[in-house]
Amino acid sequence: MKPIALFILIFLEIPFASHSQSDSLVIRSIYDEALVHGEAYQNLHYLCKNIGARLSGSDASYKAVYWGENLMKSYNFDRVFLQEVMVPVWIRGNEKLEIENLGEVNVLALGGSVSTDGALEGEIIEVTKFEDTKAMDPDVFRDKIIFFNEAMDPRFISTFRAYGACSNQRYAGANRAGELGAKAALVRSLGLGKDSYPHTGSMGYREGVTKVPGAAIGTEDAFRLSQLLSKNKVNAVLSLDCESREDTTSFNVICEIKGSEYPEKIILVGGHLDSWDVGEGAHDDGAGVVQSLEVLRILKKLNIKPRHTIRCVWFMNEENGNRGGKEYARVAKEKNIEHVAAIETDRGGFSPRGFDYDGENEFILDQFQSWKALLEPYGLHQFRRGYSGVDIRPLRDDKIALFGLSPDSQRYFKYHHTAADVFEAVDERELQLGAASMASLVYLIDKYGFPQAIKD
Amino acid sequence: MKPIALFILIFLEIPFASHSQSDSLVIRSIYDEALVHGEAYQNLHYLCKNIGARLSGSDASYKAVYWGENLMKSYNFDRVFLQEVMVPVWIRGNEKLEIENLGEVNVLALGGSVSTDGALEGEIIEVTKFEDTKAMDPDVFRDKIIFFNEAMDPRFISTFRAYGACSNQRYAGANRAGELGAKAALVRSLGLGKDSYPHTGSMGYREGVTKVPGAAIGTEDAFRLSQLLSKNKVNAVLSLDCESREDTTSFNVICEIKGSEYPEKIILVGGHLDSWDVGEGAHDDGAGVVQSLEVLRILKKLNIKPRHTIRCVWFMNEENGNRGGKEYARVAKEKNIEHVAAIETDRGGFSPRGFDYDGENEFILDQFQSWKALLEPYGLHQFRRGYSGVDIRPLRDDKIALFGLSPDSQRYFKYHHTAADVFEAVDERELQLGAASMASLVYLIDKYGFPQAIKD
Minimal Cα–Cα distance from A200 to chain B, Å? Predict the structure, then answer.
């Protein structure tokens, strides 16, 4: 059958080109349910206050897994299961940084860093751009502590762009320090604004490079340190007790509502259950976890019987390895499990602005954008190409429709990977609106699908 | 000259129908200035922390006036002046509420309430809708304390609509209580979410009605009280020492950059300098005050020479009388001062979403909406009809273009008129983006005007 004939056939069968008034009513009922009887906020409260920070392999991460499994069971969905995944184990331990003429400064080892093996002392050498180290004489850095002090550029309206533009200093700063014969890397935190909260986050070492420790300091302390360095030489003493241990078994936590027509085809909503080991992982990504579960709760509560199977996945280990996302995709491929679409929520529980479509398929993009009018009354206006999410990205192929929920990004990098990412930083209504937005998109995808996806 | 001919003439003279690339660049530079060198946040810090709450007629309100005048002078604008305005004076005094079986509960007298003249004791009678009192037998309320317990409806996406839908219980609850022979009115606070922060706000008495006191309790306490009342009779003892004094002189605080072509025509930006007497008036409306000043600072800093006079007005007494707004409009009319446009910012310092045009003029609406494409990259997507602001509303006629800055509204009613409305509740970038959005709209209005406004 030729695409054009099929197009007509689908058109007659499913009114995907003109959405009925009933869609407006269903979407209205989804938002009403989220705003009046929402459970995402109370679930987040439990996760943050009774479990808290939950780095992969930590006791709290298992507590979160079993809490999640039980919570999902309590909603009486059609299926709840755990998917095994091997995760790295990294433990922070004690840490301390003393800077000459500044005194003791808040410091956080970057995730994956080696320890300092006792106190490490050295002179600090500042670079304001990661790339600058390439052009400079390596002798300058030998046996020094390199201070990567690139600031996030406040001019980006999307703070994620500002983050992306300088995150290499965090991810690869210690590796570069090792390559240059330096003793350690100190990194200006990837945060906007000025405060003394260090932001942790993942870092890596390239094979063959001498592993030296990497740690972050707050933007305010980075500013003060830079001022000192503009006048004098400055020494520092850094102690990090962190260590990496053997990989261990953990779990993705999954529940689903079976599809009535296409039970073997999946529409996935998800976020990641693990968090960094500071704060409470409230915005990152407790919010996404409870929002994605809320999608299924709302559909069930409203008695919406999906045609496709709607699956909520709480991925493990997004923060320092993405093992959960990779394993999920590996199994899906191995078992030939078809995913029509996947929507990730991992940019904080802020007021939703829209979704990003992560793919090259014009049919999907057109269909997605045709839904804008239905969702605009709820403040969603961004229906564009963009990034979906770390966890679902391994599912990417030319058929699946990957989306990322796009909330307002202005406040995210005040909290991201810091001790300040706590329950109180999340607003109830903003969280609820995000969940309702995802549930609405799931409803539309389930009802209308994507012409091309149906064709295949 | 006929309108059609004039239209062509204007079209040749001013390229209002197609905006040049230079507009994009100017707008980009406006946002850059706000985000990189913005002073709104530091000014807000001063206003909140060194002056604080500043109800009309209070010592702090004068401190705010003179601080504002000096701050404006420090920017070397073309003109800074105070405009006298008579304002009401209301003083809170001590207050206490004890509810049987609940104990002492946080309470705030509503602004303008009479005192209780010592302790007032009575049985509480609940009504869940203000309007319900009309159909009920007045005898039910005689000598009782009426508890108006209508909740804000969480289903409204715009929280301002939820506010508007039940604000009569606050404004007119005590008046209704007086009409019904009740002793006092207790009002559930106009807040979303559940907490024990009472929200104050203005109330009024109709002439001839016996004045009885009105006070607010937090939503959580309202919930608990309602539960008690569903089982038993409940008495309460209320003491409010508040009093109204003679009107006194205060000031609108004004500065301007003179227009190069039309110095006699004004484009106004403004917010209100007064606040309620609890918290720090950070979102309401410290944010608006510093944002509107920031508009002029940005234009001057970027060396943008406006054709029209750009005036920043910090209105006095929006909260309990709107005397500043009314006096400003009265003087403008008396002196025949032409206002091309006025933009108010009084909905909190949250991420901007767009503007509301408050008028019936299709030319203005069309022109306004034609600018959407230029501002969408900055997250502005709402270019619609709506409300402008209390302070500038008295200027409304069929020529002036009135606009209200429309920020995301989800968090506003956590803080509005409460002790929680403090500096820390405002995000620096969200505040800056609002200021840049206003400056950009001012730039466009100044450059292109509105066809009809130019015609006149």
Answer: 22
Residue A315 to residue A257: CA distance in whole angstroms: 18
Contact B194, B164 (CB under 8 A): no
**ipTM of this complex prediction, to 2 decimal places:** 0.93
Closest CA to B140 of B154, B123, B164, B153: B123
Cα separation of A300 and A30, whole Å?
Answer: 11
Q: What is the pLDDT of residues A390-413, one digit of tens each?
A: 999 999 998 999 999 999 999 999
Contact of B430 with chain A, judged by CB distance below 8 Å, is answered with yes
Please report residues of B whose CB lies closer than 8 A to that of A351. 351, 408, 410
Q: Nearest-CA neighbor of B455 among B364, B372, B386?
A: B364
**What residues of B are in contact with residue A430 (Cβ under 8 Å)?**
410-411
Say what the alpha-carbon torsion angle B335, B340, B346, B347 is, to the nearest 10 degrees: 160
- Residue B257 corresponds to which amino acid? I
Q: Spell out which residues of chain B touch residue A353, defining contact as CB-CB under 8 Å.
A: 379
Does A430 sit within 8 Å of B157, measured CB to CB?
Answer: no
Gap between the Cα atoms of B153 and A57, Å rounded? 43
Beta-sheet pairing, A262-272 with B352-357: unpaired
- A146 and A176 Cβ atoms separated by less than 8 Å: yes
> How is residue B57 written in tokens?
């007629």
By C-alpha distance, which of A88, A70, A90, A89 is closest to A80?
Answer: A70
pTM for this entry:
0.94
Which chain B residues are within 8 Å of A193, Cβ to Cβ? 428-429
Q: Say if the Cβ atoms of A433 and B410 lie within 8 Å.
A: yes
Disruptive mutation site among A351, A376, A412 for chain B (greatest number of B CBs within 10 Å): A351
- Which residues of A183-261 form beta strands (DSSP E)? 184-188, 214-217, 235-240, 243-257
Q: How far is CA B145 from CA A106, A242, B149, B185, in A?
A: 54, 63, 12, 6
Q: B168-204: per-residue pLDDT in tens?
A: 999 999 999 999 999 999 999 999 989 999 999 999 9
Would you list the DSSP string of A280-315?
T-IIIIIHHHHHHHHHHHHHHHTT---SEEEEEEEE
